[in-house]
């Protein structure tokens, strides 16, 4: 990274590499700069980031800053791909408030496999609101990207909609351990799975304090023992390890999604190895969100995929497959809209992600959202037959952007559509 005129400049090369996901076994992966997962980027509001992306893979790519407010040409559109051997420069203005974002490939029909094989990384954006709080910081602020995979001593195996992804991986390692001090830590969970729903909790039922979600800090802290995350969702939590004696351990477990609990249950182990001073705390008020404006329009969106056992199932938004030449929603710049999103499936789970905007969840099956969904979101989970309402304001950039199910196997099967803001 270099800095030029108040802009942070990165050069990333997308290239094949090997990673030791399982101890002692080298596995071929796709990477940014040889790192699995991709390098952590730390950014600050008001200080732009430029990333020169060089594609040295044998497949096209398109890099999307998930949750970022950027111009269309820098959004990583599904069809705006970087051909093998070519380069593209992305400009991120970082004009939005703090948030735990991430970046990943978005080349249509390839995004599922490319992300599965490693093309993703975390992007942490901070600002003066977040920095003014006495939350754990520095070495006590741990980003942890969690996913599942089908991996064995012969390598990483990809199949669309594979239900045998039974190895849990955290920051590129299967079932790792993390050494921590007996004090409070801020931990930024990212579910970077293709399609797994997770329910994260400490094995002893210990309390975690959720302080943030996709779009940054919640209005206030939410004490809980369980963090549900669908694919692409984020949750920032504070865990106080001072309640554990030095020399002890506590396991982070997953109780969500399909698969054998013996295989998909353990995520990682925290080893408490030393004492440390701790002047951090979690304030009772974390941020103030402005009141929602009066809605200017309402829309309804349906999500459905074939689940009748056919050999080549497809996935739809409003009963249509994604067509990059079709505009599905015309939105007036500056509008604030309520979208009702319905999962029409009887078995399949989905989630809903909008590019460009952070939205507010208004209702879940007619009921107010829980405290974990009280902040800004860009991805929201939908169980079978579930309906949600969200409100989004389109006042930052004009142009065409996609919205889709962020279970990437589903979006690669066609569950994606285009909105044009003008």
From TrEMBL:
User: What sequence ranges are listed for the domain Plastocyanin-like?
Assistant: 17-127, 305-420
Q: What is this protein called?
A: Multicopper oxidase family protein
Keyword annotations for this protein?
A: Metal-binding, Oxidoreductase
* InterPro entries, sorted: Cu-oxidase-like_N (IPR011707), Cu-oxidase_C (IPR011706), Cu-oxidase_fam (IPR045087), Cu_oxidase_Cu_BS (IPR002355), Cupredoxin (IPR008972)
Q: Belongs to which family?
A: Belongs to the multicopper oxidase family.
Q: Which organism is it from?
A: Streptomyces synnematoformans
User: Record's superkingdom?
Assistant: Bacteria
Oxidoreductase keyword on record: yes
Q: Does the keyword Zinc-finger apply?
A: no
């Amino acid at each position: 990274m270099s800095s030029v005129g108040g802009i942070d400049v990165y050069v990333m090369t997308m290239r094949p590499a090997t990673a030791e996901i399982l101890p002692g076994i080298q596995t071929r992966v796709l990477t940014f700069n040889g790192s699995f997962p991709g390098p952590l980027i730390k950014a600050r509001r008001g200080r732009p980031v430029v990333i020169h992306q060089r594609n040295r893979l044998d497949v096209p790519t398109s890099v999307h800053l998930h949750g970022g407010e950027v111009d269309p040409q820098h959004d990583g559109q599904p069809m705006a791909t970087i051909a093998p051997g070519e380069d593209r420069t992305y400009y991120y203005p970082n004009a939005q408030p703090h948030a735990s974002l991430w970046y990943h490939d978005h080349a249509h029909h390839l995004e599922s496999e490319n992300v599965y094989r490693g093309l993703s990384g975390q992007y942490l954006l901070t600002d003066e609101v977040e920095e003014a709080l006495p939350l754990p910081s520095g070495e006590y602020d741990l980003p942890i990207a969690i996913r599942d995979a089908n991996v064995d001593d012969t390598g990483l195996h990809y199949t669309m909609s594979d239900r045998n992804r039974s190895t849990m991986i955290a920051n590129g390692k299967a079932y790792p351990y993390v050494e921590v001090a007996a004090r409070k830590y801020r931990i930024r969970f990212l579910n970077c799975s293709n399609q797994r729903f997770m329910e994260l909790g400490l094995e002893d039922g210990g309390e975690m304090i959720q302080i943030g979600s996709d779009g940054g800090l919640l209005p206030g802290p939410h004490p809980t023992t369980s963090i549900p995350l669908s694919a692409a969702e984020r949750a920032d939590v504070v865990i106080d390890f001072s309640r554990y004696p030095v020399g002890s351990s506590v396991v982070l477990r997953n109780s969500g999604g399909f698969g054998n609990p013996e295989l998909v249950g353990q995520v990682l182990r925290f080893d408490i190895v030393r004492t440390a001073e701790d002047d951090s705390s979690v304030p009772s008020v974390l941020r103030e969100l402005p009141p929602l404006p009066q809605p200017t329009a309402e829309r309804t969106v349906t999500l459905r995929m074939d689940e009748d056992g056919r050999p080549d199932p497809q996935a739809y938004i409003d009963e249509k497959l994604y067509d990059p030449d079709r505009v599905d929603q015309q939105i007036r710049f500056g509008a604030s809209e309520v979208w009702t999103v319905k999962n029409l499936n009887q078995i399949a789970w989905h989630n809903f992600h909008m590019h460009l905007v952070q939205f507010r969840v208004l209702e879940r099956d007619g009921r107010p959202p829980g405290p974990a969904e009280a902040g800004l979101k860009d991805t929201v989970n939908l169980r079978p037959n579930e309906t949600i309402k969200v409100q989004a304001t389109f006042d930052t950039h004009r142009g065409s952007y996609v919205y889709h199910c962020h279970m990437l196997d589903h979006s690669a099967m066609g569950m994606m559509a285009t909105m044009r803001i003008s």
